[in-house]
Amino acid sequence: MTGLVCYCRQGFEPELAAELSERAALAGHPGYARTERNSAHVVFICDDGGALSKALPWRELIYARQKLRLIAELRGLDPKDRITPMLVALAGQSRFGDLWVEHPDSDTSKPLAGLARSFGNALRPALRKAGLMTDKENPRFPRLHVVFVDGDHAFLAVADPLDSSPWPLGIPRLKLLSDAPSRSALKLEEALLTLLDAGEREALLKPGMSAADLGAAPGGWTWILTRHHLRVISVDNGPLRQNVMDSGLVEHLRADGFQWKPSQALDWMVCDMVEQPRRVAERMATWFREGWCRHAVFNLKLPMKKRWDETQLCLDLFVEQSEKPVMVRAKQLYHDREEITVFATSQR
Hints:
Belongs to the class I-like SAM-binding methyltransferase superfamily. RNA methyltransferase RlmE family. RlmM subfamily. This protein is α/β, with parallel strands linked by helices and 348 residues long.
């Protein structure tokens, strides 16, 4: 068996399956998706999982929290000896630099957390004894994932550390600080970690840069920007938390964030307003077309049905109406719900 194993938000398996099917076909690697509703993962079967994995970079997949190349699916595992069949299935593989034993982030799989923790402690020395794992964690080697979906059913898969989520289950464990104005701050923090690499964060989030936060109240996204020492125009008719204003980096304008425009070009614009996704995409495109910002992070609230179709439509609409070269990345983040988060940057 060859293909991909990808994690997603519980309930969004059809969207991930549709995305993988369409993108695999466009990349010349047709196959079929296999999943169950609320399983929080999708298995995509094709002829060459390695080639497909290279053709579909993790950072470019919208609904995949994690992307793994499938090695084997093992059913009917004996609880008394799960290790032997895994070693047999791994025979001939190159060495691994690390081992993650996981389970999908679903209600039915969460009881497997204890098994995942204990099994990793047992499997790791067996892999080293078999010459399948480096003596110490080494990011230059691929990472082995054992994904339990039941006590007797697991997938063996491989991740390229440079082309996969760096967090177990694809979930960054972020802590909401006591002075954060709202939980929505975690969405922008995760977006900057997930949609930008370390070099981009260093280059694009420099102290003293200018930004606008549309629909800012109570100030969660503004607060994140000020933690990067950006100067922020926070646009909202509602109030901001006082500690946000106390930073000395914020100008609060009581105005409609959907109608307001800056008097001069800004480095950044962020937006988490509740509005129809196509209307948001069009307004965000206006910001780029008019040259009001160079970089943006914004959310698109998704409808209940045809969410993959709406995702494509809105992203295509944004690119088309921007009327200039823009680079776009989008993800359904762990801290998102019925929405996706988009990072866009002008390429000239």
